[in-house]
């Protein structure tokens, strides 16, 4: 901006006055146009808020707040109709939590691997491939969840669960065993250190392995009667949120810079120590922002949950049972819109807007939080 | 080169719209959708100057479109409701029903499920959640996976009206968005029970007898099969005799119309 005006001033020395006026006019016009385009998209957000709120408030006026937030009876087409959405809020929370459990460890590990472990030319190939995940239409994910994954869970549910548990727990446990035996060995006198380290490693490793085998066998015995459940959509949503988490946290890891890493190496730290003790703490707020964006991707997803979550409006028993069907806010809005009378504007119509309003408010707050976190992290890194 | 192609395409588009003198817009039920599509294809082949678009968004949406005068024909798998008639009257629309075919709602189970017959009472108890295991109705010891259409569909409303007799479907029931999805879920889930239009029964699922009657064209037409319904097309007033809409909504009365309805798997109202 500054540069521009200075060039204009410089040129006006050699140009006639009228030409420079034309230029200024054009510049003003261009700025005005761009400003109006930008404010249009900002205005859109306000309009969306306004129109959703406009159709949401009549519901609370008609039915009050209590039933909507505290009852689990969702019978919008019953006589009399009941609009208890608590189980639906719960379902949204459960699948989102499940998606986070899938996407965050995988995504952050992949980001660390991409930014600090893999050689540059491998990374150039791997990152776009991960980002392709974001380009797959959600209905394709939904189709996969319904036609491939649900029958797989039904037919070989136990095996899938135990393999999943092995995949997730084995690396974590291996890491824990190594770290623990290192820590114990560090407290021993120098002479015995090596022996203690190996002994501890073997003993802990054996214990972990036994635990894993027991857990695996227990999981293998579980039979899943319906594959359209919270677990199915959690895994699929986790995969869908993965590119967001990987991309944003990789950017955060990159952003903490070469100086920091070189400083760490200069102090004699190994690559592992640099990653765990320097790079990750420095970029933790960026990673948090990535997690929030991933949560928002999962919470707003409609097609997959509508197709494969089972859509039963109840809180699973016990509440953490991921093998039972759940219903989410987005799926309810999409699925119930058709019969909700636009024309008469009944409570059945407005309740969907009340749900949309809750979703929108939540995303808005999350978005603000992630913005604030990113800003704080930039400040901390002095950029 | 590209520009030339584009302009030719544009001109062609303009020419097409200029030739098509009449358009018929059809919206509504996913169950009646296949009939509407088959009729539309047939009709457009016979009358090249008529353009027909068919959307499938559910019976309720069909009614809404008709009331808001954005479609000419509303395909519906249930009759219009009082409040829809009311809304129509307020907007000066007079919905007229044409029953284009009959449909049964077969109760579907997995082909490996040995249960071959259920009474209406048993079906109701399964859907209310009173019966939760197949062994209670003479099957293997498996927890029943209850699958129903979404409350958005005419199929759901028919089922609710004919089976549930004002009782509530259990909150354990899974909701799916289309007839095809019901079949998909039932064929891949050994413990599932579901219902869909007669046209959606194939070898991958098993239709059971209800009160001892197997769902078929004959048993639906005589009224022996209890879970059956007419399928409607609604127009605004009775269409002007001889108009394209009139010819379209009376297509089911012709021999070709009957054949098309049969081919899709529904039961025609005529028998040539």
In the CATH scheme, the class of the largest domain in chain B would be Alpha Beta
Number of domain units of chain B: 2
Q: By helix and strand content of chain A, what is the structural category?
A: mainly alpha
CATH architecture of the domain at 63-155 and 226-380 in chain A: Orthogonal Bundle
Tell me the number of strands of chain A.
2
Strand order of the largest sheet of chain B: 6-10-5-9-7-8
Encode the helix/strand succession of chain B as letters: HEHEHEHEEEHEHEHEEHEHH
Order of helices and strands of chain A: HHHEEHHHHHHHHHHH
- Give a count of the beta strands of chain B, DSSP E runs of length 2 or more: 11
So what's the overall shape of chain B? globular
Describe the strand arrangement of the main beta sheet of chain A, using strand numbers. Answer: 1-2
Give me the secondary-structure topology:
The complex is a heterodimer of chains A (383) and B (272).
Chain A: H1 2-14, H2 17-63, H3 66-70, E1 74-75, E2 82-83, H4 86-117, H5 120-132, H6 138-186, H7 193-220, H8 230-255, H9 257-266, H10 271-282, H11 284-300, H12 303-308, H13 329-336, H14 347-380
Antiparallel strand pairs in A: 1-2
Helix pairs in contact in A: 2-14, 4-8, 4-11, 5-8, 6-7, 6-8, 8-11, 9-10, 11-14, 13-14
Chain B: H1 2-19, E1 22-28, H2 33-46, E2 50-56, H3 59-67, E3 73-76, H4 82-90, E4 95-104, E5 107-109, E6 117-118, H5 120-128, E7 145-149, H6 154-164, E8 174-176, H7 179-188, E9 192-195, E10 206-210, H8 217-221, E11 228-236, H9 244-249, H10 255-264
Parallel strand pairs in B: 1-2, 1-3, 6-10, 7-8, 7-9
Antiparallel strand pairs in B: 3-11, 4-11, 5-9, 5-10
